[in-house]
Write a structure and sequence with these properties.
Layout lengths: L2 E6 L2 E6 L3 H14 L8 E5 L4 E5 L10 H13 L19 H9 L20 E3 L8 E4 L2 E4 L6 E3 L2 H4 L1 H4 L12 H15 L6 H8 L16 H7 L3 E2 L2 E2 H12 L7 H17 L14
Antiparallel strand pairs: 1-2, 2-4, 3-4, 5-8, 6-7, 9-10
């Protein structure tokens, strides 16, 4: 257990257990985002006991179009910071494609020229990235979406989080596929809020090659989970590790214009996985747990 959370009237008390760095990341993120209106206000904090008292957020039932408020809320959160905040949070990690390429070879699939496209760099952005914007960490009211649980907050590229709606909530227990019409409306709302547009395919590919996105947070300990999934499968709440990989491969296989070699690799890999693995279903509706 990394934290204990309990209600005290109109307040929420949270104590982070065993990870002082995570506590400080959360406090810093809440302070940096306070002006956005999408995070709870800090009422009291005890750094020694790693305990924070927060306002208790209103949480209304969500509608079918919740994804639009979700995306707009993420946009407001991501805009909370800029280059002047460099060093106040860790940098967002850049994925290492090497374990993924080993996985592809272990599956007996030809890599082809995809390796040339699987080169990732820090984008140089200074957005305030939540780190785990999952069901249960978002709440809704007439004012829109608000977010809690910032233990994994970083500075980086917020686009990697708006693509949760395309790539199936990669760091989350509940995986779901957002209907295309709603997803496109949400992505449009995100970029309208931010005042620019950007391609989203590269951010999806980054999640596709990320082995840590196959296990829950407590298990992201340096283990090569892509090597592990070749020989075994495991459930994480709504589906299995193999089910997650197969869904992501299906998404990336459509990126024929922006990532033609990676798209072709994803199709070959998906064909192979369908031959040797039992497909696992992915929900097409949101199961909210907040």
């Amino acid at each position: 257990m990394r934290s204990r959370v309990w209600a005290d009237g109109d307040r929420i008390v949270k104590q982070v257990v065993g990870d002082p760095a995570a506590f400080e990341r959360e406090i810093t993120a809440l302070e940096l985002a306070e002006h956005t209106g999408v995070v709870p206000r800090i009422l009291d904090v005890d750094h020694g006991k790693r305990t924070v008292v927060l306002e208790r957020l209103r949480s209304d039932p969500f509608g079918e179009d919740w994804v639009i408020d979700y995306a707009r809320g993420l946009a407001r959160l991501h805009q909370a910071t800029g280059p002047e905040h460099a060093g106040l949070q860790p940098r967002q990690q850049v994925p290492d494609p090497v374990p993924f390429l080993r996985f592809v070879r272990a599956m007996g699939v030809e890599i082809g020229r995809a390796e040339d496209e699987l080169v990732f760099e820090d984008t140089g952005k200074f957005d305030l990235v939540h780190g785990d914007p999952c069901p249960g960490n978002d709440m809704y009211s007439p004012h829109g979406a608000r977010f809690v649980d910032f233990e994994n907050a970083t500075l980086g590229d917020g686009v990697t989080e708006v693509v949760y709606l395309r790539i199936g909530f990669p760091t989350c227990a509940t995986v779901s596929e957002t209907p295309r019409e709603l997803r496109e409306a949400a992505e449009q709302a995100y970029f309208e809020e931010r005042g620019f547009t950007a391609p989203l395919e590269d951010a999806c590919v980054r999640w596709f090659v990320n082995g840590d996105a196959l296990v829950q947070r407590a298990e992201r300990d340096g283990t090569d989970h892509l090597a592990r999934v070749v020989g075994e499968d495991w459930f994480w709440y709504s589906t299995t590790a193999r089910g997650r990989l197969m869904f992501r491969a299906r998404v990336v296989a459509t990126f024929t214009e922006t990532h033609p070699e990676t798209s072709a690799l994803a199709r070959r890999l998906l064909d192979r996985m369908n031959q040797v693995w039992e497909p696992q279903p992915i929900d097409t509706r949101r199961t909210h747990i907040s």
